[in-house]
Every structure is written in structure tokens, then in C-alpha cells.
Design brief:
591 residues, alpha+beta, 11 helices, binds ligand FHN
Length: 591
């Protein structure tokens, strides 16, 4: 397409889009871009639904299991395009009732639901001019998105459409199909796909169903800023109040999306959401039995809110639309928990502390804050450093059991009963009359341990911190540094915690690991060159995918007050292609 024609087409799309917007949102032309996120900030908890042609496969192609996540079977199985498209002929979920999904979400205390309207496989769950869709290509013939929208409206839930704008494995020129001849990506091919399928389908989605709350784009890798912007302009012109997910790419979204299943280690002072699976797959896979426990899911929910995020928990319905019983069981347990504890989540604000605690997390509402306890401390005490606000009253939400408050000068101590009141997360409600003010510094924990998370480091001089780790495979580069408060003088064991490298297509397989790296440790100005080897291995708390490999670096002396520690990589080993991946530095008091 010539540039001139292209510009005309874009203008045409925008004009068309603007006229649609006037029909739909007459009263919302002057939208304050921040206000439109208000409901999203309060919502905190949503449901993600991965449903499509791939749900029929259950992880199998031609009776053979295919590795990796269920909705990627097309790609991981390198299935010929026409064969995959043939799945449409057998797609006929006669008893499908999207209301069952939405009802489950509502009962679990979720406030919004996002569904895959078109995943990377290119198949649309809605009526579309493009023929590869549920109405035209399947014996089912009904628009699933329409039924889903009706159900969300009936139950008063906000809703959003997931749309894979970049990858489309049935379209030549779009991203992602690198196994079928003739489908490879090209700049021109991508433009054709964008103008003839993706943008028209976005328009269909945003005009056919009235007001839409979220448009959830995904995997924008290699998209140019102009391309992302074109999607943004079309979406916003049609629906000015729509919230656009961060994965539109090029930092053009209204909020940030964390990597799948990846919760940050420190509070993030911007709007974010994390999509999370209940096992390892998004779409249904009959052999994936790695179900996370309800306790784990509720830890994630409370923790995400404490770090200022939204938690988008996935279900992968079976081919007939029914929800796997393992998911239903967990959602019902969440629902029971929410009946008692929802005030710690609904509309809650994040923790006043930036760093995480070993026992759980803190969330707050006006005049109250909540201690969401996942790991009941053996001492039956929870202690907060630098809490400046006077406490009026504290009690466990379950059973209204009072909690006595004492102080040891540095820490405010919550004296708990001897047993957890909830099998998952016990919540202490703390009432205050003044605003909640705390000292936000990185501080030694009440149990004496000092945990320096890589993600909580400062001055990352050219060092790349991703997935909670400082990772490098070849050349040593940059450093990570922490300033931290030591409360108790004394001797500490210094440990470096690294992890191996996982293949996400098979996360249960042991991680690849490299050792023998050389790093400099700068503790309060004193440099010490050390070798990073695995002295022992331990289970990583809350990390289902990685074990911690611990390097014991011997004893150091720390004085009460602010201290500083820096890790400077000097030489990286990469024989097993795992490189160096630093997660934490730990200082454990020596009794
Ligand atoms: O590739 C997809 C994947 O299938 C799934 O839809 C997730 C959900 O966040 N998004 C992509 C990977 O990040």
C-alpha cells in the first residue's frame, strides 16, 4: 500500500471511529484520563478467561500430548494452518453458558472479567466480517462474546476483551507463525493484516456490544510505536472511557501489565495488573495437574493489592464451556474467604511500606489497615518498624478476636493468638483515627533476618533487573546496591541467593544452572572478591518455579544504623546457558 493510500485509510478509520464514539458515549467526551481508571483501581480482583478452538484439544494433537501452554498448541505442535482451522468444524459447545463463568467471578468477589475475543490462533469468538469466527465457521453459529457481555451486564461486572493484535498464526505477515511456509512476518504483510483484519475487528468489538470497559492487548513485541498508536487511536476514538492494557506496547497503555505470574518484590507507585494462572496453562489442558493451592492464590491476591496491583486470575474452560472442577473448588473457597475478609481487598489501597514481609502483607482503607497473614509466625507476633500512627484497636476479622499491641521501642508488636484463625489468610483489622504514617526504609526484620531483594536495590548501574533478578549471561555489567537499617548490632552470616534458568514451556523440569562466577561485595566501603557457588539449595518461599541456590560467604559484623551493600559482578560463567541470576542477599543473625 502506498503511503498516501495508507494515510487516507487511517483517516477514514479515525473518522468512522469518531462517529461511532459519538453514538456510544455522548456524555463522556471530556474524560479526565485519570478518573476513568478509578473503578479499575478500586476493583483489585478480576477474572481472565481463555477459551477458544484450542480448548477442544485439551493439550493433545492427533492423540499425542503437545508440550507447553494449552492455547499455544497450534504453534508448539507446528500444526499446518488448514488442519488447525479445521477445528472450527467440530466446535459446537451445545450447553455453553457464559453466565456460569460470570457468576463464579461475581461470587468470588471479582469486579471485572476479561475474555479472549481472539487469541494468537486468529479465531474470533464474535461475529466478524472476517470469516474465521464462531458464527460463520462453526456449527455452533452463535456469538459467544455477545452472550458473555449480557452475563456481565446482568451481574453488574465490568468487562474487557483480550485481543491478540500482533500475533495471528493464521495470517500471513502477522507475527508469530514461524513454522508454516508463507506465513512469515513481513512489514508489508503486517500492515495488510492490521488494516484488513486486526483494526476492523477492534472496531467490531468496540461498536457491537455497547460500552466496553477494557481492551486487553497482548505480546506487542517488535511492534513499532506508530503501529501501537494506531490501535490506541481507534480504540479511544470509539470508546473514550475504555482502559487500554499496557501490552498495547510502546508504553502507550493506561496501566502496566506485569509479566505473567510475576508479582513485584516492592510496591509500585503506578497502576498495574498481573495475570495469573491457576495451574501452568491458560487454556484447558487435561494433563496439567499443577494446581496452585487456595492459600497460595489468596496470598497472591492480598500481596498484589498491598503492592498496588490488580490480580487477574485465569480460568480455562473445557471445550463444552464448563469450568474445570479444580478451578471451581478454588473460586468457591476464595468466595468463602471474601465473605469475611473482602474489606481488606475491595477498594483497598496499597501498603504504606515499600518492602515485603515474611508473614504476609498490608492493605488499607480510610481509618483502617489490614495485616493479611499467610505465614502465621511461630512467635505469634507480628512487628512493624517505624509505625508513627497511634492505633485505636486491632482484632482478627474472623471471630472478632482482639489483638493486643505492645512496643519494644523500634517495633510496634501485634500479639496474636496461638493459632491462625483462617486456613488461608488470617486478617487483622487495625483501626486508626489519624492517617497512616510509617518509616518506609528497608529495614531488618523483627526475626533478625535482613533480606535484600534484588528488585528492591537502588543504583542499578546499567544492570538489568528482570523477573526479580539481576541476570547476565555473558559479560559482567553494572551492579546492585542497597542501603538498609540494622536494628540490632551483631554478627551475621552473609549469603548470596541465585537461581537457575527455567524453560517456561516446561517449568516443572529442573532449572539449568551455572556457578563459579566472580563478584565483588562492597559492604560499607570494604571490598571483598568472592566466588558464587552453590553451597546448598532451599525451597524459595512463594516461588513455584525456582529453588534458591545459596552461596555461604561467611560472617560479617554489622552495627546498628544505616548500612550499605553492593554486589558488583566481575566474571560470569555461562557453560549451561543459565548465567548469573541474583535474587537476594541475605544477612542471618548468628546467635
Ligand atoms: O502468549 C500469551 C499467553 O497465551 C496468554 O494469553 C498470556 C496471558 O497473559 N499472554 C501471553 C503471554 O504473555
Amino acid at each position: 500500500m502506498k503511503i498516501k493510500d495508507y494515510v487516507i485509510l487511517v483517516l477514514y478509520v479515525l473518522i468512522l471511529a469518531t462517529s461511532y464514539s459519538q453514538n456510544i458515549n455522548e456524555s463522556t467526551i471530556d474524560i479526565d484520563q485519570n478518573d476513568k481508571l478509578d473503578w479499575f483501581r478500586d476493583a483489585r480482583f478480576g477474572m481472565f478467561i481463555h477459551y477458544g478452538l484450542y480448548s477442544q484439544c485439551e493439550g493433545y494433537w492427533n492423540d499425542k500430548p503437545v508440550k507447553g501452554i494449552g492455547e499455544w498448541i497450534f504453534k508448539f505442535g507446528e500444526i499446518p494452518v488448514e488442519d488447525y482451522k479445521g477445528l472450527a468444524k467440530t466446535f459446537n459447545p451445545k450447553n455453553l453458558d457464559p453466565e456460569t463463568w460470570v457468576k463464579l467471578a461475581k461470587e468470588a468477589g471479582m469486579k471485572y472479567v476479561v475474555i479472549t475475543s481472539k487469541h494468537h490462533d486468529g479465531f474470533a469468538l464474535f461475529d466478524s466480517a472476517h470469516p474465521f469466527n464462531v458464527v460463520d465457521a462453526t456449527p455452533y453459529k452463535k456469538d459467544i462474546i455477545e452472550q458473555f457481555v449480557e452475563a456481565c451486564r446482568k451481574y453488574g461486572l465490568k468487562f474487557g476483551f483480550y485481543y491478540s493484535q500482533n500475533q495471528d498464526w493464521t495470517e500471513s505477515g502477522a507475527q508469530g507463525n514461524d513454522w508454516a511456509k508463507g506465513y512469515e512476518y513481513s512489514k508489508e504483510g503486517f500492515q495488510k493484516y492490521m488494516q484488513e483484519k486486526a483494526l476492523p475487528q477492534i472496531k467490531e468489538l468496540l461498536t457491537q456490544y455497547g460500552k466496553v470497559d477494557v481492551i486487553w492487548f497482548d505480546t506487542p513485541y517488535k511492534m513499532s510505536k506508530e503501529e501501537s498508536k494506531e490501535f490506541l487511536d481507534v480504540a479511544k476514538a470509539i470508546q473514550p472511557t475504555i482502559i487500554v492494557s499496557g501490552r498495547i506496547g510502546n508504553e502507550l497503555g493506561d496501566y502496566v501489565q506485569m509479566e505473567d505470574n510475576n508479582l513485584p518484590k516492592i510496591r509500585q507507585d503506578f497502576d498495574w495488573e498481573v495475570p495469573v494462572t491457576m495451574n501452568h496453562t491458560w487454556a484447558y489442558k487435561k494433563d496439567d495437574h499443577h494446581w496452585k493451592s487456595t492459600k497460595y492464590l489468596l496470598w497472591q491476591l492480598t500481596y498484589a493489592v498491598s503492592m498496588n496491583g490488580n490480580y487477574l486470575l485465569n480460568i480455562g474452560p473445557k471445550s463444552d464451556g464448563s469450568v474445570p472442577e479444580e478451578s471451581v473448588k478454588r473460586l468457591k473457597e476464595v468466595s468463602k474467604w471474601m465473605k469475611v475478609n473482602n474489606e481488606a481487598i475491595d477498594g483497598a489501597k496499597p501498603s504504606p511500606y515499600k518492602h515485603e514481609f515474611s508473614w504476609g502483607s498490608i492493605t488499607q482503607q480510610t481509618g483502617k489497615f489490614y495485616l493479611n497473614i499467610t505465614e502465621w509466625p511461630t512467635s505469634n507476633k507480628i512487628a512493624l518498624y517505624g509505625l508513627k500512627t497511634q492505633i485505636d484497636k486491632a482484632s482478627l476479622l474472623e471471630g472478632n478476636i482482639p489483638v493486643k499491641i505492645t512496643s519494644d521501642g523500634a517495633f510496634t508488636i501485634f500479639n496474636l493468638p496461638s493459632k491462625a484463625t483462617d486456613p488461608y489468610v488470617s486478617v487483622v483489622k487495625v483501626e486508626i483515627s489519624e492517617p497512616l504514617i510509617v518509616d518506609e526504609i528497608l529495614v531488618q526484620r523483627y526475626d533478625g533476618n535482613i533480606v535484600l531483594e534484588t528488585e528492591a536495590s537502588i543504583n542499578t548501574t546499567g544492570a538489568k533487573v528482570r523477573f526479580g533478578a539481576l541476570t547476565m549471561f555473558g559479560k559482567a555489567k553494572g551492579s546492585v546496591q542497597w542501603n538498609f537499617m540494622v536494628v540490632y548490632d551483631g554478627k551475621y552470616k552473609l549469603e548470596l541467593i541465585t537461581t537457575g534458568r527455567k524453560r517456561m514451556s516446561n517449568p516443572m523440569a529442573p532449572a539449568m544452572f551455572d556457578q563459579g562466577h566472580l563478584v565483588n561485595i562492597n559492604l560499607n566501603g570494604a571490598l571483598n572478591k568472592v566466588e558464587v557457588v552453590k553451597d546448598y539449595e532451599e525451597k524459595a518461599p512463594k516461588d513455584l518455579y525456582n529453588n534458591f541456590k545459596v552461596t555461604d560467604l561467611g560472617m560479617v559484623e554489622l552495627k546498628q544504623g544505616m548500612n550499605s551493600l553492593e554486589v558488583i559482578p566481575l566474571k560470569i560463567e555461562n557453560a549451561n546457558k543459565a548465567g548469573f541470576s541474583l535474587r537476594q542477599v541475605r544477612l542471618v543473625p548468628v546467635k
